[in-house]
Write a structure and sequence with these properties.
By secondary structure, the chain is mainly β. Helix content is 0%, strand content 49%.
Length: 127
Amino acid sequence: QVQLVESGGGLVQAGGSLRLSCAASGHTFSSYAMGWFRQVPGKEREFVAVISWSGSNTYYADSVKGRFTISRDNAKNTVYLQMNSLKPEDTAVYYCAADRRLFRVVVTTTPGEYNYWGQGTQVTVSS
């Protein structure tokens, strides 16, 4: 059974930084792209960033480009999201997710293409 466990969320002032981690178990982590999404109450889940199975390709939402960095350590079965220059509008529950397709060539931003999700970690940015 695949499990994804996020950590690293918390409360930070605007302009600050946080690093989220997502530890995976139960599947061949290195064979799947991994994504980060976020959600605020009353809104749909929003794509944040994705990294290919090899780590060679990344893609970001325009709202976080230049501030967030996604990375992965396949030896540790972990994907990270480094978040810098945080803004109050980054406040959300952040989820990591595993792509449903093995060795996907072109990464996807569509939540429906991810079939395993973590429980989420709250990020709150105060102004």
